[in-house]
Predict the 3D structure of the following.
Amino acid sequence: MAKPLSVLFVTSESLPYVKYGGVADVSYSLPLALRDLGHDMRIMLPKYGCVSERRNRIHEINRLRDVPIPVGSHSDPATIKSSSINNPRAKVQAYITTNNKYFDAKKGIYSDAKTGKPYPDNHERFIFFCRSVIETCLILGWFPDIIHCNDWQTALVPLMARTTFAKEFKKTKFVFTFHNINQQGEFSEKLFDLTGLPQKVKNDLIYKKMVNPVKGALIYSDYITTVSETYAKEILQDSKNTNDLNVLLLKYKKKYKGILNGIDTYSWDPKIDSLISKKLGNNFDDFKQANKKSLAFKTGLNYHDETPLIGMVTRLDEQKGVPLLTSAADKIFQEDIQMVILCDGSQEAKNELRDLSLKYPKKLKVRFGFDEPLAHLIEAGSDMFLMPSEYEPCGLNAMYSLAYGSVPIVRATGGLTEIVSDFNPETKTGNGITFKNYKSGELLSSIAKALNLFKNKELWDVLIQNGRSGDYSWSKSVIKYDEIYKIITKD
């Protein structure tokens, strides 16, 4: 093997500490997969108020106490603490930025936990975090071969390192991965000075009269990736969902690549999963029935073996297709089905789903917030898993569903087109149910197809086995990241 590289993986969320979306899964599983290849992987993220230091064994590092972090003309202290991500095959050290004003005092990650509204100082919070990444490297005297940043919350790191601290980071290369380019973290042009960046780079950050961290990261990174090949291609032609940054991506096409995410097959293995009621043994039907019973009991549904149970684990964003679901709900719940939804989002969206569950109390149960054990139980206990996304950069939950024998019903978009193929009853090929257009009629037709197949035990078993036999691990995709790392550090 070539010489191992030192890599700092910078993210705003990661399991096992905190999760809002799929970024947390990737920020946990990809560094572990890269560590398996021999690289010195470390991650860095903020500690929000909802994160338990005791449960996660987070402890102080003497020389990283009360580090002054400038934000504009003032500064606040950050204490950088340490923890480690462990599983039986690998260990990755985590640096965790703590600060009462920006993180500890807030129970939510990006939004107020009570109102669901984004924090008005999010731009300041993540300027602070990005600068804490720089200061941590400076104090440790550790300038990794690669700093791998994820999404807008970390996008200022390459700019800070390559301008104000260019001398110290002269040998460090930067990878920027966006998990959803529609989220760009823009804030007022008048607040540019908060970044602490020199005026000469202002034009590289200003876009449509706003400071746009993602624009800056696209320019200053050595390589840009996103989370599936299909999504990478789709957004090059999509001005609406890229805020016209597709033009910039086209300019940097030579250093841009889509790589399909994988899943951590230790955390998501039904044979050893400690978060579900019954692990998978030799009898799949026993596994599914036991977990379905447990899911029904846990959420307050009456268990019926012959009634299909549909699961969803989602953010309440328009992107995820929740409006499509609610618009078709009255017709969906005319069918003999049950549904469990685990979700989080705005209070308005929560209220809409809560009202729907009150309207159909015997058919729909909704749970709000981050609940990893329940997320695992939904995958293990549901017969089908619904992802009616308007667009979907990757679609990790479809992989979890396939591994756990929950048939995914998805709109064919983005990464979902690489994960799920429509089942053909005649050829018995395909591992799920797909629909093409973002229309309620097509969603209803796909659910109807799934319900008909569910009644045919022979075909249903084939469909489930097709899904369970796939390889959804990082084994192929991690090699592509490894290749990128080697390409940009070979000079």
Observations:
- The chain has two domains: 6-264+475-489, 284-468.
